[in-house]
Amino acid sequence: MVEPKSKVTRAIALILAFPALVAFQLFLLVLDAPRGIIIPVALLAWFAGPVLMVIGAVMLLPRRWPFLPSTATGRFALWLVCAGVACLAIFFVAVAADLGRDDPEEFLDNLYLAVPILIAGVCAIGAGGIGVYAIVFRHERSLLVVGAVILGLLAAVFTVGELGGHEEPEGSGTER
After folding, report:
1. Which of 10, 37, 96, 100 could make an S-S bridge to 112, C-beta 3.0–4.6 Å?
2. Do 133 and 125 meet the contact criterion of CB atoms below 8 Å apart?
3. Measuring CA to CA, how many Å separate 17 from each of 31, 39, 134, 145?
């Protein structure tokens, strides 16, 4: 096996791992491989692939922006992100286990699903707010805190969108 010669080569290899994993998954789908092979490759491609890509991109960044936070507020923002991800995992386990009522009329009718996703949203938005505070007032220059701010912004945008409500489509064909 040939060793990569430089840090840049390793970073580019990590960045290209994600498209390579996706291409391998598509290749398996074209070959009509069994589900027992496709599902683990898909999980690896879509969960490990982006992580490898981000690690490769971080390796290419200059050292002025460290990866780990150096202030207490930056570390607290990361703890909130971790708590939000844990609640999101609990939500997906509850969805997979089909817990609660099958046909809830309102959001809070199925507390097995509502409580974890509410806590995850609050943690993500809180991590974004605390991350902004850490960057602006505490001069935090960590890439993970910048990621927490982006995650908080995305969670806030989706929360505002959900607060707007949903309209039922007219003439969807369900009424006969």
Report:
1. 100
2. no
3. 21, 18, 33, 25
- How do the domains of the chain map onto residue ranges? 7-60, 72-163
Q: Which two tokens stand for residue 24?
A: 């391998």
Neighbours of 43 (CB within 10 A): 12
Task: Give yes or no for a contact between 80 and 42, defined as CB atoms under 8 angstroms apart.
Answer: no
Q: Give SS3 for 124.
A: helix
Token code pair at residue 68: 């780990």
C-alpha pair distances (Å), 28 with each of 11, 23, 62: 26, 9, 38
Distance of CA 83 to the CA centre of its chain: 13
What is the identity of the amino acid at 175? E
Q: What is the C-alpha separation between 73 and 71, in angstroms, rounded? A: 5
Distance between CA atoms of 68 and 81, rounded to whole angstroms?
A: 14
Q: Over the stretch 92-108, which tens digit does the pLDDT of each residue have?
A: 888 888 877 777 677 77
Q: pTM for the full model? A: 0.59
Task: Dig out the tokens for 104 from the structure.
Answer: 């809830």
Whether 88 and 124 have beta carbons less than 8 Å apart is answered as no
| Average pLDDT, rounded, for the chain | 82
